[in-house]
Amino acid sequence: MSGDVRERFAAAAREERPDLAELCLLIGAEADPALDGAAIDAAHIELDRLAGLLPYGLATPLEWANATHRLLGAGLGFHGAPGDYQKLASSLLQQVLRRRRGLPILLSVVWTEVARRAGAPVYGVALPGHYVVGFGDPAGGYVLVDPFDRGRVLSGPDAELLVAGATGEALSPTMLTPADPLDTVHRVLNNIRAWASPRLEQSAVELWSIDLALLLPRHPARLRYERAQLLVRLGDFTAGAAALDEYADLIGGFDPETAEKIRRKANAARAQLN
After folding, report:
1. Angle formed by the axes of helices 20-31 and 181-196, nearest 10°
2. Of 85, 121, 119, which is closest to residue 102 (Cα–Cα)?
3. Alpha-carbon distance 153 to 73, whole Å?
4. Residue 94: which domain range?
5. Could you give the CA distance from residue 242 to residue 190 in angstroms, rounded to a whole number?
6. Contacts (Cβ under 8 Å, ≥6 apart) of 96
7. Residue 248, Cβ neighbours under 10 Å: how many?
8. Most buried among 129, 237, 246, 268, using CB within 10 Å?
9. Is the pTM of this model over 0.90?
């Protein structure tokens, strides 16, 4: 994929206030070069256009929630369905804007970006297993909506059911705090990796999703190990072995036993070259 896209992604991720829409659009550009350039510009223009369709004078969180539902969900048909989890396009913002279908997290990006441009007090909420959107003050009066369900307003029990259904956990106040943009981007990339991982023909997608995640300022160190293992599975034994050794060096100071096992895997990968 284009090194230019990755350089722009890394730079955007390190901005003082990362632009969530731009980062999601660069993920789309990494997935498909046709979604770069004019396609990114067109997506920003479309988000601005949609924001301009929201009415003036909205004041309360419920008014914002209902107006955004009427525009995006009821009016334009943005929503999701179980089948959308089987499509890579459901995780690419350019495609979600075109198809008006996507995963909860990408639809939530559309909701927050459109409403934010119109002046709404809006934020993403990374509930376990199901991303939603909040309008209002997270420390005071707020309304939750589910863009996957066309922006339906969620009651307290609705949110509890979403979390319990996805994870079996109980809803806690910490789950309702505004999501950090970079954490949201990491979750988008996790979804792409989870989609690609069981599909052997999509190993290249799995690899670039890991590569982009490693460009974020914060990422789990274990991603480096996953990338190394993937390189070996793809037959790039030299690069895979080198990456395994690097990870072993990284953890050797606090887990020497595991580091030694990983070094043995690196040697086994090099042996495949003989």
Report:
1. 20
2. 85
3. 11
4. 3-176
5. 24
6. 78, 89, 90, 102, 106, 107, 109, 110
7. 22
8. 237
9. yes
Residues 150 and 101 in one domain: yes
In whole angstroms, give the CA distance from residue 194 to residue 11. Answer: 25
Shared domain for 89 and 167, answered yes or no, is yes
Task: Give 262's contacts (C-beta < 8 A, 6+ positions apart).
Answer: 225, 244, 245, 247, 248, 251
Which amino acid, one-letter code, is at 15? E
Q: Which of 148, 176, 204 is the last residue of a domain?
A: 176
Model confidence at 274, pLDDT cuts 50, 70, 90, reads: low
Q: Do residues 14 and 113 share a domain?
A: yes
Q: Output b/e per residue, 91-120; b: 16+ Cβ within 10 A.
A: bbbbbbbeebbbbbbbbbbbbbbbbbbbeb
Query: How does pLDDT run across 103-126, given as a tens digit for each residue?
Result: 999 999 999 999 999 999 999 999
Per-residue pLDDT reduced to its tens digit, 167-189: 788 888 888 899 999 999 999 99
Amino acid letter, residue 50: L
187 and 170 share one domain = no
Query: Both 78 and 38 in a single domain?
Result: yes
Structure tokens given for 3: 């090194």
Length of the chain: 274
